[in-house]
Amino acid sequence: MNNIAAILLAAGSSRRMGDNKLLLQAEGQPMVRRAAVLCQAGGLSPIIAVLGHQAAQVEQALADLPVRCVLNEDFATGMASSLTTGLAALPADAPAVLVCLGDMPRITLDDVFALCAAFAPEEGRAICIPVHDGRRGNPVLLGRQIFADLACISGDQGAKTIIQKHAALVVEVPAGPGVLMDIDTPEAYASFRNN
Fold it and tell me: pTM of this prediction?
């Protein structure tokens, strides 16, 4: 099977944080760089980073990594435009993509490996969702079967409605608590730094 690709969503304006959260430090490096390094370590290829707000600074944080940066001119309209921008940049033979958020620094390599290992579209497992303590989280692995539907989403919605439409293709994958934790506020970042 060809490599599973990654889309790293890194375009948001971090309104609730008040500063670009993707450039804040996580384990000694910018949060967005940590996410890209994790994708690389997980064997995901290609890695497509979708940029928008402060694109030049975010791209600089990813310098020297095997990441292709693409610009979402419409990032202010919400997450859907970033997802569709990333999908459009994927190679035609990518069997699946792991959609990663740049602000989830507690995701582990084990989480990434487990999601990729669960992907088996020929057995009906084309959408792999991490679950911790009964709750679904991120990142989510999406098979090529649903790319056409994903290309039609709009506004500030992610893939949730498309996943619901294709519920029969979903497999829930046990994962660590990091799949539920994103950094949206100064309080959340302070908590992350203190734990």
Answer: 0.92
The DSSP secondary-structure symbol of 194 reads H
Question: H helices of the chain, where?
Answer: 31-41, 55-61, 79-88, 109-118, 147-150, 160-165, 186-194
Written in H, E and C, the secondary structure of 122-165 is HHCECEEEEEECCEECCCEEEEHHHHHHHCCCCCCCCCHHHHHH
pLDDT tens digits, one per residue of 79-132:
888 999 999 999 999 999 999 999 999 999 999 999 999 999 999 999 999 999
Report the C-alpha gap between 69 and 34 in whole angstroms. 15
Nearest to 71 by CA among 57, 48, 52: 52
The pLDDT tens digits of the residues spanning 1-51 come to: 458 999 999 987 656 565 678 988 888 899 999 999 999 999 999 999 999
| Cα(158)–Cα(63) distance, integer angstroms | 27
* Lookup result for tokens 């390599």: 109
Domains of the chain (ranges, CATH numbers):
5-194 (3.90.550.10)
